[in-house]
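If you are new to this repository, start here. Below is one unmodified record pulled from the training split, so you can see the exact layout before writing a loader.
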Amino acid sequence: MNGEGARRRDVTVADVAKAAQVSKAQAARALGNYGAVSDDVRERVLAAAEALSYRPNELARSMNTGKSHTIGVVVGDIENPHFGLATRGITDAAKKAGYNVILVNTDEDRAAEVEAVRILLDKRVDGLIVAPASSVDTAHLQQVHQSGRPLVFIDRTGGDLDVETLAVDMAKISLEATQHLLEAGHRRIAFISTLRTDAPYKPGMTLDSSQIEDRLEGMQRAFLAAGLPFPEDLVRLNAGDAESIRSITRDVLRGPERATAVVASDGLIALSVVEAIQELGLSIPGDVSFLMYDDFPWTRLTTPPLTVIAQPVYNMGVAAAKALIRQMEGLPPAAPAQFTATLVRRGSVGPCPDLQEPVAAGRTVAAP
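And here is the target side for that same chain:
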């Protein structure tokens, strides 16, 4: 086949060498910036490469040098603004250091994470940054660590795996946030998360996510310190899509033992929770108080503005990339990065309503 429809053949090192009138070995050394080559040869080769629009074969280069200058990043849900912001921090720091990033989304599925790690290793990434889908079942990550491939965790731990982890102390900030709700008089506090489990939540059960486990631990410590029973029936996991989140929200806000405050474990959940509260005809914080993890611009635009737990997510991404690059470049680890979350008190947490009857759809039934 010929003519304009024919696919243009990729320019090779041999083509560049021929145009520069040098040997293929000389052209390869000049293009790869390794080995001995004269200034005259280098100039002729680079000029020929530019004229021919030569693009190096990165896979072949990585096989020759052992480095691809590429970082693999594996996260659970790129639709979640939390991971979007962390990834931005990673890519900004990586680009500044001369590295490219390959991002894989796993939908918080361990099998998908195992496959993602395998693919990234096949592509010869120089290192991996992973937000583990499971902090319990980490055999595939243990293999990566034992192989000597640079590995860093972000947002969550990998169980007992001794890998540098960039994350916030969730138990501490959860304790503070729960105390804030308890001080406002709330005793029936719901917690909603997408974490998948095979059974309803019970204190002490093993959870796949270290983040969620730590948040619930902080809540329980606050109730224990106050001498109050922890409302484990209001811990609702397996909140999948928007409709299931709204259904869970409606469920915890109805009945004689309804929640008077709701905590959403991320920004995506928060949107559906607020929507369900509005559909019930309830007001925030008059009928139900609301608190969420992560601080995004839209949380300040609602009426009232939302009380949030703000995390330095972008900075965590930057630190994760820098920590991984130090490993990849054979440098000793820096001092462990310390990240602190902040409870930002706005208008969505108010006094516990004095209700003696359950909330009916579309209205609040107050005490007489």
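Two things worth knowing about this chain: Residues 81-96 form the longest helix (16 residues). Residues 1-8, 357-368 have pLDDT under 50 and may be disordered.
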